Amino acid sequence: MTRYEPADSFATPRFSDVRTFMRLPHNRDLENANVAIVGAPFDTGATFRAGARFGPEGIRSASHLLRRHNSGLGVTIFDHVSAIDYGDVPVVPGYIESSYEWIEEGLRPIYEADVVPIVLGGDHSIALPELRAAAKRHGPLALVQFDSHPDTWDSYFGEKHTHGTPFRRAVEEGLLDVERSIQVGMRGSIYDERDWDDAKEMGFELLTTDDVRKLGIEATTRRIHERVGEAKTYVSFDIDFVDPAFAPGTGTPEVGGFSSWESQQFARSLAGLHIVGFDVVEVYPAYDLAQITALLAANIAHDFLSLVALARKRGGISGK
Amino acid sequence: MTRYEPADSFATPRFSDVRTFMRLPHNRDLENANVAIVGAPFDTGATFRAGARFGPEGIRSASHLLRRHNSGLGVTIFDHVSAIDYGDVPVVPGYIESSYEWIEEGLRPIYEADVVPIVLGGDHSIALPELRAAAKRHGPLALVQFDSHPDTWDSYFGEKHTHGTPFRRAVEEGLLDVERSIQVGMRGSIYDERDWDDAKEMGFELLTTDDVRKLGIEATTRRIHERVGEAKTYVSFDIDFVDPAFAPGTGTPEVGGFSSWESQQFARSLAGLHIVGFDVVEVYPAYDLAQITALLAANIAHDFLSLVALARKRGGISGK
Amino acid sequence: MTRYEPADSFATPRFSDVRTFMRLPHNRDLENANVAIVGAPFDTGATFRAGARFGPEGIRSASHLLRRHNSGLGVTIFDHVSAIDYGDVPVVPGYIESSYEWIEEGLRPIYEADVVPIVLGGDHSIALPELRAAAKRHGPLALVQFDSHPDTWDSYFGEKHTHGTPFRRAVEEGLLDVERSIQVGMRGSIYDERDWDDAKEMGFELLTTDDVRKLGIEATTRRIHERVGEAKTYVSFDIDFVDPAFAPGTGTPEVGGFSSWESQQFARSLAGLHIVGFDVVEVYPAYDLAQITALLAANIAHDFLSLVALARKRGGISGK
Amino acid sequence: MTRYEPADSFATPRFSDVRTFMRLPHNRDLENANVAIVGAPFDTGATFRAGARFGPEGIRSASHLLRRHNSGLGVTIFDHVSAIDYGDVPVVPGYIESSYEWIEEGLRPIYEADVVPIVLGGDHSIALPELRAAAKRHGPLALVQFDSHPDTWDSYFGEKHTHGTPFRRAVEEGLLDVERSIQVGMRGSIYDERDWDDAKEMGFELLTTDDVRKLGIEATTRRIHERVGEAKTYVSFDIDFVDPAFAPGTGTPEVGGFSSWESQQFARSLAGLHIVGFDVVEVYPAYDLAQITALLAANIAHDFLSLVALARKRGGISGK
Amino acid sequence: MTRYEPADSFATPRFSDVRTFMRLPHNRDLENANVAIVGAPFDTGATFRAGARFGPEGIRSASHLLRRHNSGLGVTIFDHVSAIDYGDVPVVPGYIESSYEWIEEGLRPIYEADVVPIVLGGDHSIALPELRAAAKRHGPLALVQFDSHPDTWDSYFGEKHTHGTPFRRAVEEGLLDVERSIQVGMRGSIYDERDWDDAKEMGFELLTTDDVRKLGIEATTRRIHERVGEAKTYVSFDIDFVDPAFAPGTGTPEVGGFSSWESQQFARSLAGLHIVGFDVVEVYPAYDLAQITALLAANIAHDFLSLVALARKRGGISGK
Amino acid sequence: MTRYEPADSFATPRFSDVRTFMRLPHNRDLENANVAIVGAPFDTGATFRAGARFGPEGIRSASHLLRRHNSGLGVTIFDHVSAIDYGDVPVVPGYIESSYEWIEEGLRPIYEADVVPIVLGGDHSIALPELRAAAKRHGPLALVQFDSHPDTWDSYFGEKHTHGTPFRRAVEEGLLDVERSIQVGMRGSIYDERDWDDAKEMGFELLTTDDVRKLGIEATTRRIHERVGEAKTYVSFDIDFVDPAFAPGTGTPEVGGFSSWESQQFARSLAGLHIVGFDVVEVYPAYDLAQITALLAANIAHDFLSLVALARKRGGISGK
Q1: Res. D317: pLDDT tops 60
Q2: Which residue among A68, B75, C288, F119 is buried most deeply as judged by most CB within 10 Å?
């Protein structure tokens, strides 16, 4: 089996070459890959700013700064993992239902090949077709969602599909093992005082930013592990979980959020879970500065990639 | 009858107050208005960049620099016209067909009151509901379109509605008097060598940027007047008609375009036509610098407002 | 009595319409309002950068992201409060004394109607006419000032009025109950080692950023409450209290400041005080990125609005 | 006599060292200088945007790109001229009358030493103290003004001094030989149809942008020479003469302006006039991009410096 | 033979997928290609700003807007040409001589395969290794250089290799048929009045921007054809040929340059020449806005690609 | 002896005048100075982004906000110190070895005069010639390095000198008392799991960001003091020690870093050490926003200047 890994940064500079994630080979050879980085350049679901369609490009570009060894997790990624940049799934800008079909269809071969996808969004509406594809292979999944919004509203302007509604739809469609699912980071102004209770009533555990500040990061991560347990899990990281100072390039920013360091602690704390798919969403490069948002998103994706490497190093069960 | 006009810039500074177009009153009193400035904050039809939903905000903001007298057309606008900022028509981000209904519905009372709308886009897909509303009141209209693209493609990704297709749809729906319609400014790379011929075969007169450079501005404007004649006319100004140096804040920029001065000559040359509606579209503030795109768009809208004033001054027939 | 509240964000998108604060109605109906949002687009008092005249526009624009329920304070604002966007008070750019008269005069009807103003600055020099207007109605006020500078210098370049001097002037004019006043957040380089002692000698309690770091946020907020007690209070929030990473768009930034989350804790901690007026000042949009400064300022103003709602919910005494 | 000239760009790179104009020595040795570059970092007179106080810094920074030989005028500057960066004249931000005194006072020694000043603004209000200083030494002067606005309004908000009024004040004070003065480039919307006639009635010749487009550049420059003749002349170049695409970093931009190449033709066409002082004003770096506005302003100042060199090369009479 | 062409823009949106030039396949199959797009991410030769190392990324990103048919040259590119994105040649940041070897070596296989390279710079110093590689295959070449600087200085700071010296070195090394070579567009301030004469004395024909303005574009392009004749030709397009308003993202901008439309006329006028290699250099994305510089550079490269297609369509001799 | 100090900010505004550090006199009078601020505008050593050559300009510009008294360290600087802006040392862009000679040579007179240099970079490769100059005067030095990378790699692309290698070279050349040297702040992805161990094996104490988070700031600073003891010390502060939210304008940003407040605590904690030279490096203004990175760097330099003042106040031994 070929092991796919990034180009050597001591042979040619990291600022060189066509922008794939981490300078990985761009191909669709699922046979020889454990992880596939996949772009989902879709933003028709956005209710405030637009522009997440350029998120995959932005994250890929910033990812050229990343190196092979993850010091936070203590793993040299490509000793344990073969990874490819799979390119983007097809989308139809302006048509959310058709795009949902294309995205689900685009991800299906990855799941079928038991390759772990790390999806680069795109607005958060893509979580629904992601979960459809994942659940088709794995059945209902535990969800670990880092986000400042629960995205469990029922509808906007009379329409069911936006980046504010995917997780309600996912529950309705039975894609989630909601009793094992947890949402972390809710904060800011909300439409109605019951917005968060709604999510809880659907079955989610929901920890607000204020909850986390009270509990502390460590206790919070223990809660995540307790909640999820051994279940097969989908991890969805909305970059607006992070404070706009650290992640200005997003669509519905909420001040009062987490720092980049704290965000990395959360991502890394997931080691040990049985994760079958990941995404990092809501990066809007037109609102970014010096790529700091895209770079943070790339680092989060790098942590996710490292989680798979770590699981494989430890004889874990993620991916094939 | 009340005459609505901007706040006095010698009493309070132009940088003051809530951003309405030119500091006009914000109301829906169509009884007492000749012109209504209307925002259509819609960008679900965009096929490359996104963000025209903030176009109306951007143009309104920049318009605070504008003053009452149009020196290029020689008319003191509010001696002849009562104008209001009507606010925005409703849209549903992510849903183009529903938005088309809302936009058409939103514009209908304006046409019914014989008020001339100047619509601030939004991406160019809004031209279809605009023309539906206009044609419902006035019958098929002549079109004068300034644009670097004809927007007469048939479909993208199998879907009929984008900002690249509204004028083909308008022809199909019988909204245009295509024999009196003219498209000016096409340039740049195209998908197929027949793209522009298609527009001609639908009946449009089409003048490319190269044609205009050969003819000169004056001859071109004569061609417009000859083509349109006495017909009731809709004027649609896509800011990408202008070169990206002068209008960087747009969605599908084409280099090699017209300067701001040339663009103003075209707008002003329309004096004498019987125009029943206007739009300025495809302003994307997130890609703008120091508001130069928005300011140019605001100036074009100011010229359009002045055309109505001039028609009224001369006893013309635009609006009530 | 009419209750004024924001437009419904599920009916039309938040990015729609003329930019008023939180999409509130723009009128001057003080009869039916408890709170008036007022812009003071003045920056002639600035001693380093300029541009706070666009602060009210910037904050209004960003405020369209805000929703009705304040999760941090646990109050659904418009169940308890009727609020309007009052527009801007008149100013004369380049003339600080005349502007002081216009601003005071502009705010007087609001105070006379027992409506609580939340003023959007503008540079901090506007605090003087604000306090003149407030004190005329309420007598000398306690001041709670969040700021990295005490703004109690005597003069600059031989002139008495700048954004570095308003609170010394206010003390000289007897507008403050200085024994009940507290300044929080001073830090950075200063002109003279006695700069802060001067403020203390005038009677202010002054807590530097280093003091606050030592005390902790909770103890600090207790100190504020102890200091102010039952006094009628004016709250002035200079956005440079916050670190430039979270609030780059300001005029005299001081590194080493507070985070957005910490800033919100301070704003929310004021619940229970008897506050008769608020401001948020020193927002310079030309130096901002992706509106993060303006959005933070809008959130602070949202917290202030919520404090009034909370007081009214609890049967409090703020406003009428 | 020492000849002051820029640092050698083949010895140390142009991006080196403290930013003086063109890397000239920074001193006040008027004995040994023919030209003094002087900053006037004042923007209290601005009626729309603010920020011209950083204009001198911006122009100095961009000027490091400039080299010794002016190819357009065919003169190796420092073969004929000794030039210094004099630093800035004192100003009092927020106080226009005091600043006028400081600026006039600051420029006086330069005029007294028969050194030609090239003033880097600052907003256009500084033209009044400049002309006061110049006229004190030379008597009433011809004015050549490149600008999109005549700046001959009477007052704003009841106040006499802003960047819209200096030339009316100058006429009232007898500082101008108005019969030999000419204003070039007016365009855009104006407050009242009589705005430009007012300037003409004061005695100015006024050529609008439309006039210049009809006449052509060459005929226009002949008109300037005919108008001015042998009179001692002050040249004032407002960067908003240029189109915002070429000069976005300005305070009251007017679209439809001149290109950078055209602007240089105008500046260079002044060769042969008897010029005793120059300014380049209204550069606002916070609105600039990649320094293109500042670089254009620096090039215009470089042309002005070259005009003095050329006059001295030809045995001309400018400066000592 | 496989014909390589861009992904279909009606199947997946142009904003999709890994950024290759025009969405071409990224491979090194020189057998089946007529044209290879090659990045040279090198900027160690820059003497003022730095950052051209990101030029290839920037141009590739903007090129996603480009379509298959070139309307200006009347050719549907991929009916006649098979093109690949070859990726980048290796460079060593900070070491110009080693990089020269790597770049020459990197380009050699392309020339050996009789594939026409279109090189995306990088600063202009890369012209030397490009010409070394080209001359090794084709012998001394005619040069058509569009640029605001001749780049024929001898040395900077005592060193022979910078972006200001490559064409002098190329003459010294016998890489150019200097009698058939022409430099177009010189303007701005220069170090010494003999700078341009030096280039002429080396044998170049040199047309300044002022020369071109006098001759007109058409006569200028005739001069180019007369000069070059039938010789094998290298075309080098420095984006600073264009005015900074149209191309702000460059390293040593010179105001007073050509518009984007004029620049395209020059590029397209080369049809009929026997061109064996092209470059577009000096794009600095960190100084760009909304990609307008990168987009113009991409369009110039698109014209170059079209010239090859046209030559092949006409049975021409460019490439294999 | 003359005491050099900044211009008086109450006499002329801080935004005035040629940009020297803190408005200090620009001269080379080492006789009368204790501290010399020196620019090293060099970025040829950079391996990812470029542009640190404009770092000194950026830091000088932002430093105009700084005032005479350091409240964090409790010292009125210019009561104890005479400081000058020495200008820049010569560099040769594109040639690292020659530049190393020029920089060392440029710094030598400062060390010989027993003046303490505070060097404004420039990329981190300048640390090598700095240490060569310092060690020539003082012998091997203790190093306190704040940085997210140890910069002890052996080579890149086969070359020995980049901004990733200076400290390995310094050890090899015997410039460091490595047993008294400490590196603080390493984090992020690394090329190889042994990268940091390598630094330790060379003899450095190395504290990662994670180590510091565990230890706390106070314990960390004790470790620094214990490590360094009485040794003569060089302090090198790479701005990428700080999180990109606080310092976006840098070349190889690593997310998860320290805040501005924490960074200041580290800088100030060095009081009491025997420091003979300082630098602040890796500021890239083209990637900065509203000067927040440059301002933070200026504040760090201000703290360093204050450390010297404090040492002199306490009868300390730094400098003459």
Answers
A1: no
A2: F119
In a domain, B155, yes or no: yes
**Are chains F and A in touch, 3+ Cβ pairs below 8 Å?**
yes
Residues of C with CB under 8 A from a CB of D: 43-47, 49-51, 53-54, 90, 92-96, 98, 156-159, 161-162, 286-287
Alpha carbon separation from B16 to B13, B304, C59, C122, C300 (Å, rounded):
6, 24, 13, 11, 22
Minimal C-alpha gap between F11 and chain C (Å):
5
CATH number at residue C159: 3.40.800.10
pLDDT tens digits, residue range F212-256?
999 999 999 999 999 999 999 999 999 999 999 999 999 999 999
CB-based contact C69 A190, cutoff 8 Å: yes
Asked if residue D85 has pLDDT above 60, the reply is yes
Taking the C-alpha atoms of residue A34 and residue F236, their distance in angstroms, rounded to an integer, is 42
Express each pLDDT in D59-78 by its tens digit. 999 999 999 999 999 999 99
Range of the domain at C223: 21-313
Q: What is the DSSP code (8-state) at residue B6?
A: P
Min CA distance, B185 vs chain E (Å)?
12
Nearest to B49 by CA among E291, C251, C149: E291
Instruction: Count the domains in chain C.
Output: 1
The shortest CB-CB distance from E96 to any of F51, F94, F158 is to: F94
Angstrom CA distances, E29 to E26, E80, E83, stand at 9, 17, 10
A255 closest CB neighbour out of C13, C64, C260: C260
Instruction: Nearest by CB to C256, from F68, F69, F264: name it.
Output: F264
Q: What is the token pair recorded at F220?
A: 């960390």
Round to whole Å and give the CA distance between A267 and C62: 30
What digits encode the pLDDT tens for the residues C22-38? 999 999 999 999 999 99
Per-residue tokens: C236: 């002035």
- Which candidate in D18, D60, D102 is best for mutational testing of the F interface (most F CBs within 10 A)? D18
More confident residue, D155 or D306: D306
Across the interface, whether the CB atoms of E296 and B255 are under 8 A apart is answered: yes
- Chain D CB contacts of F39 under 8 Å are 16-17
**Closest Cα of chain A to F215: distance in Å?**
16
CA distance A252 to E132: 53
Inside any domain, residue A9: no
In this complex, the residue of C191, C209, C256 whose CB is nearest that of residue F67 is: C191
% of chain C at pLDDT higher than 90: 95
pLDDT tens digit sequence for A291-315? 999 999 999 999 999 999 999 999 8
Shortest distance between the Cα of E166 and any Cα of chain A, in A, equals: 23
Do the domain assignments include residue D226? no
Q: Do B92 and A287 touch (CB under 8 A)?
A: no
What is the pTM assigned to this prediction? 0.98
Secondary structure (3-state) at D127: helix
Closest CA to E125 of E306, E296, E264, E251: E251
ipTM of the complex: 0.96
Which of the residues B17, B86, B102 would you substitute to probe the C interface, choosing the one with the greatest number of C C-beta atoms within 10 Å?
B17
Cβ-count burial C101-126 (b if 16+ within 10 Å, e if not): ebbbebbbebbebebbbbbbbbbbbb
User: Is C182 in a helix, a strand, or coil?
Assistant: strand
Chain C positions touching F13 (Cβ under 8 A) are 47-48, 156-157
Alpha carbon distance A164, A154 (integer Å): 8
**C257 in a structural domain:** yes
As given in the structure block, the two tokens for residue E46 are 């820059």
Alpha carbon of residue D240 to chain centroid? 12
Distance to chain A for C225, nearest Cα, Å:
22
Chain C residue numbers with beta carbons less than 8 Å from the beta carbon of D158 are 92, 98
